[in-house]
TrEMBL record:
Keyword Acyltransferase listed: no
Descriptive protein name: non-specific serine/threonine protein kinase
Membrane spanning residue stretches: 296-320
Source organism of this protein record: Cinchona calisaya
Cell compartment(s), UniProt: Cell membrane
Residues that, per the record, bind ATP: 383
Gene Ontology cellular component annotations, sorted alphabetically: plasma membrane
Family that this chain belongs to: In the C-terminal section; belongs to the protein kinase superfamily. Ser/Thr protein kinase family.
Signal peptide start-end: 1-25
Membrane topology, record value: Single-pass type I membrane protein
Classification via CDD domains: lectin_legume_LecRK_Arcelin_ConA, STKc_IRAK
Keywords: ATP-binding, Cell membrane, Glycoprotein, Kinase, Lectin, Membrane, Nucleotide-binding, Receptor, Serine/threonine-protein kinase, Signal, Transferase, Transmembrane, Transmembrane helix
Catalytic reaction equation(s): L-seryl-[protein] + ATP = O-phospho-L-seryl-[protein] + ADP + H(+); L-threonyl-[protein] + ATP = O-phospho-L-threonyl-[protein] + ADP + H(+)
ATP-binding in keyword set: yes
Length: 670
């Protein structure tokens, strides 16, 4: 009896054990390793030269010649639809950080491959150009079922390699199905930049497969640089034809007659969605290179110099710092305390206002990217030189009012700092820069219609906040695509409040100088000089047309009837062909009703009669489909609507299309 009980207990125990074990293996659909410390679940399957260094760094190969090393996740992943009983089988993504440190500066071999393979046994595979993945007889054989992305540092003619510094997509073969020289698209600079795989510096790779589009993309960038919005490789591929049900994921690396240390610092994988991003500070560091050792040696000399002239050096440093970080502070500024930044912090954030951190240059100064040392927050610092301190007090009061404006579709002004002859404004950092650059430049990916609609709604809600929901009525007075910035999620944010005016609710705006940008200026402004919420709505209308038509309000190089966007859209509307004016780059991929709504709303907002323009509250209702756009108002507008005629802009004698800036325009970027 007792024996039976024991047996039953044992069986239950075993049952639970097996259950736990299988479920943990099934849960292995995603993981992230910041280094591969022993005990920290990593437990990778290693062979060849591969080993894990004491600080958690995975070293795939050292500089032993013609060897290979592998590191694989120890459990197989399910990669087929039937075994998962799902309809969306393959979407996966992985990201890893690698570094290749060559033995000699004059060459490296051979490279690293991320691989998905039915087996972890690579004992039959060859090193050198075969990357430890295949051998002479099975290279190119479809029964391998191996998918790999190679980071190749040798040009192998047999495999038609493009150069000795490329990235390739390999299907069952080392003859890449797609490859390109290593480079990355810099989101901030809007251009491709080349990359040296063997630089010895950590580089991050993103590999993503979208089963819906059957598209594989590979991107890479130096560590710390944002994931490029344009991948290096985009390859249409049906992975279900390559992979089997149970597959292992990992890395393979090989050396040749020239050898390198191949390292992996971190690895993130998600079998069913976007891989988690790294906390870079948690990644292990690389062993010191010869270059760094030399640096260290120099550092030994520093104390000696220090001893000989300690007092002198310290004194010098003190004076230099004092001059470097000197600020201008006056008593009246005390009330703005929290918005005042310390120059030292801004100096450190922008690495001393290095040109490398420069993200924009405008008529009024330069804009630098920075990271605040205390919080790690990304900021943009606008550095404006000003001669006199006249009007500075009012000016800072205005900055303070702006700092109080808080809305997710406004670029947040965080604060300011003053030095002699210099004013610094601190904003949230907007990684994608200004909307007009993204919208009009063909180098950047063109925004889809859905993205544009989201930006339009965002800006409408930001403007509604300024007009009706904030403490005071805020007139922006310079709404246009170049004053709208895109945040990391491609949300539009209204920026550049250099011309903004604040009024109490119910107060009547005063006559002021006419400011704004030609093409966005409401016609009554030029007569009365009174900026109102309706003149902001007019400019918003011009912005709507820009978004729908993908062009600027005035383009002198076009056919005469198309030069003025507003007139052209209006003429087409009268002919019943308003959709003809939609952005040709969208190739018709938009909802017709939505496009029509935006175009017609753009016309209505641009009505000559300010009273006929909707207010921002109505605009938001029309955009959200909570009210129907009245067509009648458009119908009796036919003379009026041709508001911004070319004569008028000539009469104003404005330099066109650059903006016209008032005294307050000190913030203006354009
Ligand atoms: C590389 O590692 C292997 C085994 O880990 C070792 O035998 C060999 O000496 C190492 N080679 C170099 C050049 O350090
Ligand atoms: C697969 O899913 C269907 C419906 O969701 C279900 O009826 C079936 O039992 C599942 N099969 C397996 C093997 O889990
Ligand atoms: C690279 O440099 C090393 C030492 O500086 C030298 O021994 C080797 O021959 C060089 N290789 C090539 C391909 O130039
Ligand atoms: C190549 O690898 C395959 C499978 O790993 C093995 O069956 C075959 O014998 C190998 N061929 C050679 C020439 O090593
Ligand atoms: C990849 O290239 C090989 C030839 O190198 C070819 O046989 C194979 O069909 C290609 N696969 C795909 C999916 O393009
Ligand atoms: C940048 O690189 C991508 C991917 O290789 C390429 O398609 C694109 O044409 C390049 N753009 C420029 C401006 O060189
Ligand atoms: C993996 O992707 C799925 C689906 O997108 C997501 O729900 C999950 O949070 C992701 N896992 C991690 C660790 O980010």
């Amino acid at each position: 009896m007792i024996k039976d009980l024991r047996l039953i207990c044992l069986l239950i125990f075993l049952g639970v054990f097996i259950k736990l074990h299988t479920s943990s293996a099934e849960d292995e659909m995603q993981f992230i390793y910041h280094g591969f410390h022993e005990g920290e679940a990593a437990n990778l399957h290693l062979d060849g030269l591969a080993e894990i260094l004491p600080n958690g760094l995975l070293q795939l190969t050292n500089t032993s010649k013609q060897q290979s090393g592998h590191a694989f996740h120890p459990f197989p992943m399910k990669f087929s639809m039937s075994s998962l009983n799902v309809t969306q089988p393959y979407s996966f993504s992985t990201s890893f950080v690698f570094a290749i440190v060559p033995e000699w500066a004059n060459g490296s071999g051979h490279g690293i491959a991320f691989a998905i393979s039915p087996s972890m046994d690579f004992s039959q595979a060859m090193a050198i150009e075969y990357f430890g993945l295949f051998n002479l007889s099975n290279n190119g054989v479809s029964s391998n079922h191996v998918f790999a992305v190679e980071l190749d540092t040798i040009k192998t003619l047999n495999f038609y390699d493009v150069d000795n510094n490329h990235v390739g997509i390999d299907i069952n073969s080392l003859v890449s199905n797609a490859s390109a020289p290593a480079s990355y698209f810099s989101n901030t600079e809007g251009k491709n930049k080349s990359l040296e795989l063997i630089s010895g510096d950590p580089i991050q790779v993103w590999i993503e497969y979208d089963w819906n589009k059957k598209l594989l993309t590979v991107a890479l960038a130096p560590i710390g640089v944002q994931k490029p919005i344009r991948p290096l490789l985009s390859f249409p591929l049906d992975l279900s034809l390559v992979l089997l049900d149970n597959m292992y994921v990992g890395f393979s690396s090989a050396t040749g007659s020239i050898a390198s240390n191949h390292y992996i610092l971190g690895w993130s994988f998600n079998r069913s969605g976007e891989a988690q991003s790294f906390e870079y500070s948690k990644l292990p560091s690389l062993p010191r290179s010869a270059k760094q050792r030399k640096k260290l040696w120099l550092q030994i000399w520093l104390p000696i110099i220090g001893v000989t002239g300690l007092m002198g050096v310290l004194g010098m440093i003190y004076i230099v710092r004092k001059i470097r970080y000197k600020e201008l502070r006056e008593d009246w500024e005390q009330e703005y305390g929290p918005q005042r930044f310390c120059y030292k912090d801004l100096y450190k954030a922008t690495k001393g206002f290095k040109d490398r951190e420069l993200i924009g240059v405008g008529g009024f100064g330069k804009v630098y990217k920075g990271v605040l040392p205390c919080t790690g927050a990304q900021i943009a610092v606008k550095k404006i030189s000003h001669e006199s301190s006249q009007g500075m007090r009012e000016f800072v009061a205005e900055i303070a009012s702006m700092g109080r404006l808080k809305h997710r579709n406004l670029v947040q002004l965080l604060g300011y700092c003053r030095r002699k002859g210099e004013l610094l404004l601190v904003y949230d950092y907007m990684p994608y820069g200004s909307l007009d650059k993204v919208l009009f430049s063909n180098e950047q990916p063109n925004l889809s219609w859905d993205q544009r609609c989201r930006i339009i709604r965002g800006i409408a809600s930001g403007l509604l906040y300024l007009h009706e929901q904030s403490e005071q009525v805020v007139l922006h007075r310079d709404i246009k695509a170049s004053n709208i910035l895109l945040d990391a999620d491609l949300n539009g944010r209204l920026g550049d409040f250099g011309m903004a005016r604040f009024y109490d609710h119910g107060a009547i705006p005063e006559t002021t100088d006419v400011v704004g940008t030609v093409g966005y200026l409401a016609p009554e402004l030029t007569r009365t000089g009174k900026a109102t919420t309706s003149s902001d709505v007019f400019a918003f209308g011009a912005f709507l047309l820009e978004m729908a038509c993908g062009r600027r309000p005035i383009e002198p190089e076009r056919l005469p009837k198309e030069v003025i966007l507003l007139e052209w859209v209006f003429e087409n509307w009268k002919l019943g062909e308003i959709l003809q004016t939609s952005d040709p780059r969208l190739e018709g991929s938009f909802l017709q009703e939505e496009m029509e709504l935006v175009l017609k709303l753009g016309l209505l907002c641009s009505h000559t009669n300010p009273a006929a323009r909707p207010c921002m509250r109505q605009v938001v209702q029309y955009l959200d489909g909570n009210a129907i756009l009245p067509e009648v108002l458009l119908e009796d507008a036919d003379i009026g609507i041709v508001a911004m005629s070319s004569q008028q802009s000539e009469k104003l004698n404005l330099p066109f299309p650059s903006s016209f800036i008032s005294v307050q325009g000190i913030f203006s970027d354009s």
